[in-house]
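Feature request, filed as a ticket because there's no other form

It would be nice if the structure record came with a short human-readable summary line next to the tokens. Right now we just get the raw output. Example of a typical job, pasted below so the devs can see what we mean:
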Amino acid sequence: MFFPLPSFGYENVIINEIAWMGTEKSSSDEWIELYNDGDSPVSLENWTLKSLTGTLKINLKGIIPSKGFYLLERSDDNAVSSVNADLIYTGALKNTGEIIELSNNLVNPVDAVDCSGGWLAGNNETKQTMERIGPKEWQDSKDPAGTPKQANSTTTKIETVEQINQEYPSGIVINEVLPSPDGPDGEKEWIEIFNKNVFEVDLSGWKISDTIGTTKSYFFSENTKLLPKEFLVLFRPLTSIVLNNEGDELKLFSPDGKIKDSVSYEKAAIGESYARTDSSWLWSSVPTPGEINQIISLKKEILQENPTGYQKESPTTSGKGLAAIIEPIKEIKAKKDYNYFSAVLVALTISLFSGIVILMLKKKAKNLNN
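Raw output as currently delivered:
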């Protein structure tokens, strides 16, 4: 009996079974199975299936039927002797684990499996395969040969669409980005994620990607949990995502392939972050990783007027960096206001005095004429 899975994204095609360990005959006889849970056949032309380590990159072709399977075998058609392969590929899967991503012809993510910390199921000794039984749940196959192009081993677990929708809530957003930091971009660029919800959210299997230039994707590792109203700051050395200084776009995906949030920006100024507000996004001269966004714009004339008044501190030190920049600005503004009113008062005094002098001179001239 086969327990159909709900839609996982575009065209309902998922990665359904992986023989990452090979077979009893040969460890090189690896194979991967896709499954189409939709009501219509899907063309796989120009689709890709790849591992993010680069050990595997397969250009797909052909059609996967409705409620049907698509079998990929490594090197030749002997990996599964009793079943014909739909595609022969080259490359290998690491026994220590991989992140595998399936993308459609528009380069949009369709499905992904994050096994960066080790394969979630399957047994290298018994050669039991890794079978999918839920959006993020896998099991060892009942038999060592697995179930190529067949329903996965019987399971009592049935996921409903309602359960899936509840599992990937809204309210997880991209909150702030720093594309052009003071210092090396490769070390100090970061992306901040925020949980707007009043409940904890498990980000296992979520993904964030950029779309311009050399694009990269970062998959959140297993058991990455974000508490209510909590921030998560991801630095470039971790994500490998390059935030282009001339402009870029970021997209946040839930494990079902749906876009949960996105943001795009144009040319970035050095040291300024792009931060979310209640109604829009604005550039701020005070980045606030891990803290509530503060939109502060330092004008050039202020820095020139008080070049020593701006003391930049780390914004992660409980708001000290923010205080260090607000106070000098207040002082400068107060000084500007004082100077302005002083100048106005002097001007009025001079005008009044001049008027009195002119009147006296006119009166004296009139008396002389008489």
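Something like this underneath would help us a lot:
The longest strand covers residues 13-19.
The mean pLDDT is 80.
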